[in-house]
Amino acid sequence: MSSPILDYKRFIQRFRPHTLRSKMMVLAIVMVSLPTLVIGYLVETEGRDALLQEKKIKLSAVTRLLDDALKDSFKLYPDLPRDQRIAALNKQLAPVTDTITKAFSGVGAGYYNRELDAIITYGPQALHGNAVGVTIKQNHPGRDVMATGEPLVRWGSQVRGNIMNSMIPIKRDDQVIGYIWANELSNDIARQALAMDLKIIAVICIGMLFSIWMIVAFSRRFASDIDTIKSGLNELPLNLKTQIPPMKGEMGEISDSVNSLSRALREAKTLNELIIESAADGVISVDIEGCVTMMNPAAEEITGYRQKELIGRPYAEIFENTNFFSPVLDTLIHDIEHVALEVDYPGKNRTIQISVSTSQLRNAQGDTVGALVIFTDLTAKKEVQRRIEQAERLATLGELMAGVAHEVRNPLTAISGFVQILKDSETDPQRLEYTQIILKEVHSINKVIQQLLDFARPRPSLYQKINLNQIINQSLILVKTKGVEARIDFVVQLEESLSDIEADGELLKQVLLNLLINAVQSIAARGEIIITTRALSPDWQEITISDNGCGISDEIKTKIFDPFYTTKPSGTGLGLSISHRIITAHDGDITLTSKLNQGTTFTIVLPVKHSEGIPQ
């Protein structure tokens, strides 16, 4: 069980201000409120004292006036009995007390005769006349006044009630013959004091609210400047070119100092850091916990990730949803260093091929503090190698096929001629049928040989101004037979504003026919083929042919453009190879994307002007 002291500490800790702004606000409010409350208390106390002093002066003035008005009236009617003399003196002096008390609202005043030991008058007579003739008690402060002959002011319950009573002795011929009083009810004094207190409190509250409002307003401005500086400081480790906007006052001095610091840090960079930043190879370092601590611009360019996305983040999180195990983490965890290791790296937007070298980072004491990876993007290099290898294979195959075709075509020509002679002289229907089959098969062989020759030694291209939309429409006329249209929907989306390009229309038509026929053959029952054209830029145009047929597996994709590779029982495997060679001769590019049982998309990119080079 927690103790009350611990609970109290937790409560205090919970409500303690933690931010600089909140601490300054609390401090400012305390510094404003405490003096204000102290001053208010002092003003209220002094105000009350001043009010009481003013009351004392007023009541004392009333008693002095009554004393002056009395003169020697107490010597009158000495022969009358006590009660009659009190009545006679009251009749004589009551108008005096009434006149004077009328001038001072809320004040009661009167005379007391020591000889008669009775109240002679108590004005206003209409309110206090019933007190005339009353003898005061033995402990009444009036007796002290008569006994000592000294003025006295006393609070308390007396004849009239709870009052502030100012009393002076009546002295005649050095004899105290009575006393005069003037009093005011405590409730009246308290009411006036309360009204004064409320005014003081109102002024204090208004002042404090205004002060708090000013504090909040200035603290917001101050906090805004602090947030700007904090943001700049957070950005500074990632970008030393960070500059904090100019400010005024002390915040301006701080911002100027931070800007000066960033400039000094930029100028103080070591040669190694500058080399790393300028290196064409990507460099990434991780700390002992596997969190990214550094990433150079080349690494950003290669991986697609920005520094803001990776700095301070566990490097392994990037590969959580992949089967990739990072070599640099392998070096960090297992102390296994890699040199020129080729891996497929899952970048932010694409998978890339990179060559990786890793090493551990050690401090001056030799302790491992992290790991470093240096890597080179091999994707473009591998693509160039692939194209070169493919071109070399095609060239070698072309030469071989040209020789084979030449050697095969001569005997076939002889066979075809002699079979034709036999056919013309033959009358047996069965033998005529055999000769017809022989001629048909010889024609098929000749067709294959012609394809081989076209592949090996393509005819010179005839470049002229053509429109891709027209070429596509002409190709579709040859493909869209009644049987095909009955089961396949052709969706043609051609950009009408497409400009003419420099190309060989007949060769492009051959490519389009190959792709369209393959798309038709990939759809077993009902399906859809989408043909689109669009301008990628003023210098490049694109054709896409998509189907929702059987698709192509990943194993076949890499071989699809290889000569003699086919998945069709009667195919030669030269259609796509010839198409690839034609597009390459146009300085264009042909690629495919496909998913098994979902469909295939072929994309052709062609330059508007010949010899533009393949687009990036």
Automatic annotation (TrEMBL):
Enzyme Commission code = 2.7.13.3
Residue runs in coiled coils: none
Q: Which reaction does it catalyse?
A: ATP + protein L-histidine = ADP + protein N-phospho-L-histidine
Q: Please give the superkingdom of this protein's source.
A: Bacteria
Which keywords accompany this UniProt record?
ATP-binding, Kinase, Membrane, Nucleotide-binding, Phosphoprotein, Transferase, Transmembrane, Transmembrane helix, Two-component regulatory system
* The keyword Cell inner membrane appears for this protein: no
Which residues belong to any copy of the Histidine kinase domain?
A: 403-610
Q: Which InterPro entries match?
A: HATPase_C_sf, HATPase_dom, His_kinase_dom, HisK_dim/P_dom, HisK_dim/P_sf, PAS, PAS-assoc_C, PAS-like_dom_sf
Keyword Kinase set for record: yes
**Domain PAC spans what residues?**
334-390
Q: Which GO terms describe its molecular function?
A: ATP binding; phosphorelay sensor kinase activity
Sequence intervals crossing the membrane: 24-43, 200-218
GO biological process terms on file: regulation of DNA-templated transcription
Q: Name one Pfam family in it.
A: HisKA
User: What residues does the PAS domain cover?
Assistant: 268-320
Please report the name of this protein according to its UniProt entry.
histidine kinase
The organism is Limnobaculum xujianqingii
Q: Which gene encodes it?
A: atoS
